[in-house]
Write a sequence for this structure.
């Protein structure tokens, strides 16, 4: 028997709708169902009795699997809360592109059947971490340091294991995990990196010099960045959701976390299938004909 926890993007009514559909369908199985309290309150009374309200931080005590309803951002927020646990996350895409949340809502019942039958694979995804003001901050996609309060560029001095890389004069820098290379980094000209590759990528945002290109370094290295901003401050953002302010001459160290994120993926698809389906990357007219 599997114990299933449901997690949703509270800002998307359709996420609640599909979580409700999943709850009704899961009743066909001998399983216990949990959900965060604010989601349970949104369920109709006739099915509310079949789910137990549990804070997300306690999912690991009760659940074997978490089903996330939303987009990639929903998985990112869920993943950070569950980083210290070993619970795999299944992402149902109620968003747009869906690189992390790749299970389609129009096949929700089928996907739940496959989950309950064990027809899936689990992949480990690396996370990065840094410490600011005594708080450890994690990212599954990326850390971004960018200009604040001005259109003028900032300068970020970079070191890899104390070896000086250079001064990046740009609108900012993206420090991306392999998982995050298809997010913000890609739109800034960064490379696509297979998510199992043990590296971190430094992608400048609108650099002043065209010679400043994305740089890939081993993820066993520690990356040190020092801020120089004309306004005296820069924005620091983790996964587009967690924001802090960095002061001039403040330094941060980014490294690979010892904790991994576990994601549930369809058993018969690969990362390269995902690239072709989502980005039409290296796709040909024959791909559709062969499906």
């Amino acid at each position: 028997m599997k114990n299933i926890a449901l997690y949703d993007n509270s800002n998307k009514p359709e996420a609640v709708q599909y979580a409700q559909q999943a709850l009704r369908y899961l009743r066909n199985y001998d399983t216990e169902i949990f959900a965060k309290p604010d989601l349970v309150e949104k369920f109709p009374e006739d099915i509310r009795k079949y789910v137990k309200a549990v804070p997300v931080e306690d999912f690991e005590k009760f659940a074997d699997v978490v089903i996330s309803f939303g987009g990639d951002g929903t998985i990112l927020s869920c993943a950070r809360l569950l980083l210290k646990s070993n619970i795999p996350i299944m992402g149902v895409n109620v968003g747009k592109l869906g690189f992390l949340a790749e299970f389609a809502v129009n096949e929700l019942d089928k996907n739940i059947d496959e989950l309950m039958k064990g027809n899936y694979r689990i992949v480990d995804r690396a996370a990065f971490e840094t410490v600011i003001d005594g708080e450890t901050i994690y990212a599954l996609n990326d850390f971004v340091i960018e200009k604040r309060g001005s259109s003028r560029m900032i300068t970020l001095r970079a070191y890899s294991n104390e070896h000086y890389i250079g001064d990046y004069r740009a609108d900012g820098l993206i420090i991306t995990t392999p998982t995050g290379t298809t997010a913000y980094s890609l739109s800034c000209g960064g490379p696509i990196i297979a998510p199992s590759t043990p590296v971190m990528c430094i992608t400048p945002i609108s650099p002043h010099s065209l010679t400043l290109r994305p740089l890939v370094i081993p993820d066993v290295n520690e990356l040190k960045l020092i801020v120089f901003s004309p306004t005296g401050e820069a924005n620091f953002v983790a996964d587009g959701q967690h924001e802090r302010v960095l002061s001039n001459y403040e330094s941060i160290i980014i490294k690979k976390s010892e904790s991994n994120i576990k994601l549930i993926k369809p058993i018969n698809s690969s990362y390269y299938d995902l690239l072709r389906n989502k980005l039409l990357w290296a796709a040909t007219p024959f791909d559709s004909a062969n499906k």
The CA atoms of residues 24 and 47 lie 7 Å apart. The chain has a mean pLDDT of 92. DSSP finds nine helices and 18 strands in the chain.
